[in-house]
Design a protein that fits this description.
With 466 residues, the chain is an alpha/beta fold. Helices cover 39% and strands 17% of the residues. The chain has two domains: 3-159, Rossmann fold; 192-461, tm_1862 like domain (pyruvate-formate lyase- activating enzyme), CATH 3.80.30. Strands 6-9-10-11-12-13-16 form a seven-stranded parallel β-sheet. Strands 2-1-3-4-5 form a five-stranded parallel β-sheet, with helices on both faces.
Length: 466
């Protein structure tokens, strides 16, 4: 029997990253098992976090953006842990899931260690495996194959010795009919029966085309599962696992409003028909739409379906900045959505960007005013968290092609080190970040998303913003 050990590489971030087994591997496992392939799965994110906690995992997320002593401080304990973590592999294959570009710097040393103890075949896959990077891993002998994009179907073909266009390819594979996939199976993870978070993927890709985001380049087509299918997966996870919470991995849980409405109504009705069933709460990323897109009844169904937390990409308190980003909502839409969610006690995570290329001082002050308004208007109704990041210009984004907005300050074209032609350079963007961060710390009804209170001190000490 063909067998494979699947390993999810960090970092995947807080929330689903540190508490929930990898949904990518849970989607792949039943596809392989239906073809008689034995699967064993491990999630480094959970295991590293459980050993090193908030501070260790936060540091790991800065690897690749760090430098000097801090980089050594991150890499050395991680690789010592890897050597204790991966000591023996009893399968014919190893599959390494590289979640994103943030995992690129971590993959080579992990693969070198796997090569030193394992004589079988190694394949790397995931949306972190862009073509030049995947080919480089293969040329350096760290992997035998790489798969671009989604592993369902393509990994089956590879392990069965068949051809597939995603194997060693420049073209990312995408499953077009998500309803055709089997229900994700988490049984290949060898965790105990303690309460855990579990992840559902109701859609792939994004219905929006925000200028700063690389998701449109990674997922050429936005696809979704039916609301009934998502509810079926939710109920299946509840029945088979000791579930504490369900976390949606979607870019936007309400990307398809028709299917989102279907899901929240089916789940609300199911709980009503099963009054002895404890409501299992869920969280996900949510888009702020035109205020006419969601009725008061919709908000109640969101709450009754079990929603406890929504992460919303507000990005800026300035309408002008959001218009350039193509966020497509006004201040009126924003306060309507956030106010209705807060009234129901749903936790809010406000995803914010400081230092967008077109952001003026007045635009930035609109963001500070937005924080103050959220503190005063809604902060006493629910938990409101703020996640502030300095603007980065990534490859494969629309803003990266807007060369009239910025110039690079060195030949390496790092995401941070660029000067905007209309003003603020990296140093000014950092100062805006520090000021915004400190304002949130002072506002009594807002909280930072960082669970480790030492993170800010560490960043400022090493002159970093991540």
């Amino acid at each position: 029997m063909t067998s494979i050990t699947l390993i999810a590489l960090p970092p995947r971030g807080y929330g689903s990253g540190t508490r929930a087994p990898s949904p990518a591997l849970a989607h792949i496992a039943p596809m392989l098992e239906k073809d008689g392939i034995e699967v064993v799965s491990y999630d480094m994110n959970i295991d590293y976090y459980e050993e090193f906690g908030d501070e260790g995992y936060e540091k790991l997320q800065t690897w690749g953006e760090s430098k000097g002593d801090l980089e050594k401080e991150i890499e050395e304990p991680f690789m010592e842990w890897v050597k204790k973590y991966i000591t023996k592999i009893d399968t014919e294959w190893v599959g390494l899931s590289i979640f994103s570009v943030y995992s690129e710097v971590i993959a080579p040393p992990v693969l070198k260690h796997i090569r030193s103890i394992f004589d079988g075949k190694i394949v790397a896959g995931g949306y972190g495996v862009v073509y030049p990077y995947g080919m480089k891993l293969k040329e350096e002998g760290l992997v035998d194959y790489f798969i671009r994009g989604e592993g369902e179907e393509s990994l089956n073909a590879l392990l069965k010795g068949k051809d597939h266009p995603a194997i060693d390819s420049q073209i990312p594979h995408q499953v077009l009919d998500l309803d055709s996939l089997p229900i994700p199976d988490y049984s290949s993870f060898k965790y105990d029966d303690q309460p855990r978070d579990y992840t559902i993927t109701a859609s792939r890709g994004c219905v929006r085309q925000c200028t700063f985001c690389n998701v449109p380049a990674l997922f050429q087509k936005f696809r979704w599962k039916s609301g009934e299918k998502v509810a079926q997966e939710y109920i299946d996870i509840i029945k088979k696992n000791n579930v504490e919470r369900v976390l949606f991995s979607d870019s936007l849980v309400n990307g398809n409003m028709k299917e989102f409405r279907s899901f929240i109504r089916v789940m609300s009705d199911w709980y009503e028909k099963n009054p002895k069933q404890k409501v299992v709460p869920w969280a996900g990323q949510f888009i702020c739409r035109n205020k006419n897109a969601l009725t008061k009844e919709d908000f109640k169904y969101i709450k009754n379906s079990g929603c406890f937390n929504l992460q919303i990409g507000i990005e800026s308190g300035s309408e002008a900045v959001r218009d350039h980003m193509k966020k497509k909502f006004t201040n009126e839409d924003m306060y309507y959505t956030l106010g209705n969610l807060a009234d129901l006690g749903i936790e809010l995570v406000l995803l914010m960007i400081v230092g967008y290329p077109t952001e003026t001082k007045e635009d930035y002050e609109d963001t500070l005013l937005f924080f103050e308004n959220m503190n005063d208007l809604h902060g006493h109704k629910t938990n409101i968290y703020v996640n502030i990041n300095v603007m980065k210009i990534f490859y494969h984004t629309e803003v990266n092609r807007m060369h009239d907005l910025y110039i690079w300050e060195d030949e390496k074209r790092t995401e941070f080190v660029s000067t905007y032609k209309e003003g603020h350079d990296f140093e000014e963007r950092k100062e805006r970040f520090y000021e915004a961060y400190e304002l949130v710390e002072l506002l009594p009804n807002l909280r930072q998303t960082a669970t480790n209170p030492e993170k800010y001190k560490m960043l400022k000490k090493h002159d970093l913003v991540v």
